[in-house]
Amino acid sequence: MDGTELALRLSYDLDGVTDREVFLDAVTASLEAMFPSESLGWVGLNPVSRDLEIRGTGEAGNPEVLAAVNRNMYRHPQVLSYTSTSTMDPRRMSDIIGDRDWLNHPVFAETFAKWNLSTQLTIIVTPMTPNSWNGWAFNRYRRDYTDSEVEAAAAIQPVLVAFNRLTGLATPHPAIVERNPLTRRETEVLQLVGEGFTATAIGYILRISTSTVRKHVESAYMKLGQHDRVTAVTTAARLGIIRLPG
């Protein structure tokens, strides 16, 4: 399943979804079909309590796992890797730390070995900082994720980022201004334009025709008093209507 197929599947699975748990479960099910794992799910850091939320399959729903990860999150090689760089590219544990060092790492002993897990792949949807960790984690026993799976993760990451921003159900986000001149659909389309998606890709994601996408774009431009993509997206971001990557 490539990024386009995932976008189509999610667009059907998430049509009309407003419940956060249903949203996370639907995305988890779609990702499980693409990356079969012993344990996988959403991992998010609460910006207020500084505690992690883990929701998914297998041991992802185990309270003991959550407690162990909370104790060790700032020693976790994945967290250290992401917070030391500005890039958001998906990565495997084996890309970060050698097998011998990983097997002797305290995080492995407390959060992986106890539940017969050893390898990990992560796809984050917001830049990771010490106060922000939002994305998806996949865990297997012994069998590592392949290079082609890492490439697939990179291909679908923009889709996951876009759905996360569009729904507002996964991570906290600034409130949209009360007097948003755009309709809900125009806002969704312009958000995806700001993410860099083409009209064709936006049509796949929102399940509308390319010509309808263009009509929404033109309407958004007119309402914002702009005449091109760059200024319209910049204006919408300044007003708090959409959020730009980064």
Order of helices and strands: HHEEHHEHHEEHHHHH
The coarse silhouette is: elongated
Number of helices: 11
Tell me the count of domains: 2
Poorly predicted ranges: 172-178
Instruction: Summarize the biggest pleated sheet.
Output: 5 strands, antiparallel
> Approximately what portion of the residues adopt beta-strand conformation?
5-15%
* CATH top level label of the largest domain: Alpha Beta
Known CATH architecture of the largest domain: 2-Layer Sandwich
Radius of gyration: 19 Å
User: How much helicity do the residues have?
Assistant: 40-55%
The tally of strands reads 5
Mean model confidence by pLDDT: 84
CATH superfamily of the largest domain: PHY domain
Instruction: List the strand order in the largest sheet.
Output: 2-1-5-4-3
CATH topology group of the largest domain: Beta-Lactamase
Describe the structure.
The chain has helices at 3-13, 20-34, 63-72, 77-83, 99-103, 106-111, 147-167, 184-195, 199-206, 210-224, 229-238, and strands at residues 39-45, 52-56, 91-92, 119-124, 134-140. With 246 residues, it is of the alpha+beta class. A 5-stranded antiparallel β-sheet has the order 2-1-5-4-3, sandwiched between helices. The longest helix is centred in the middle third of the chain and has 21 residues, at 147-167.
